[in-house]
Amino acid sequence: MDLKRSKFVIAALAGLFVAGTAFAQALPVEAPPPADPQNILNLDLSTGGRVKVQLRPDKAPNAVERIKTLVRRHFYDGLTFHRVIEGFMAQGGDPKGTGEGGSELPDLKAEFNDLPHVRGTMSMARAEGPDTANSQFYIMLQPNLALDSNYTAIGRVIGGMQYVDAIEKGEPPANPSKIVHASIESDDLGQPPVAYVPPAAPAAPALTGKEAKEQQKALEKAAKKLRKENKTDSKELAAPTKAIESDAAPAPADPGTAAAVAAVADESGTDAAVKELASDEAIAGPQ
Questions:
Q1: What is the domain count for the chain?
Q2: What is the pTM of this model?
Q3: Beta bridge partners of 159
């Protein structure tokens, strides 16, 4: 993530700050699924304690898997929160600590969803394009619904929010707060990771009524055309001698070819002659 891109992330967020907060006063928040250690992100911060984030693979499976992959590589250990805006959000996950960096993994496709950007929501930071999230993330300090469906929300803080509030403010902060250690709770408990299964592509909707009839007619028409073409081909193949004689009306100059044509004229030698000619043409053709 280059400097131009990193500046856009904050500029876009800051520009929507006032408007988004105004709409978030009476927001009904969907109840999350039961907490699963496989999807609890633990962030031990330099501000004094552990922050627990419930990740939501049901809403953003690829982004959640990216976070878990990088956590298990210890990618986030020691990284700072390089941009923190009072009453808005805290952004981190950049190995350069400048807003210009990311992991060596490819950028992610957007997974915009219906998780609202309320206090404690964790989302993927991105640049101008929707498919530019990589490793950087931010945690909301206050609600801002103007960000909904524009950034990929991946979960929400369920414990230790006071340690997020205590993150040093600034762009960049004078003394940036750090992620001392990041882990997945199931790993801390000694549970083996659950294998990641990429989300299946949505099935095509079943055709009904008029559409189904039209599709059936089209299939029958195509089948009829194919049968007709096959019948025509069969008739042409039934008289190979006549076809070859017609094509070879001028006397061939090459003695070998002349012998082959003569053999074709003899029904008993037709098959052998055709095979020999086909073999010669295959050798002389483009590779």
A1: 2
A2: 0.65
A3: 52
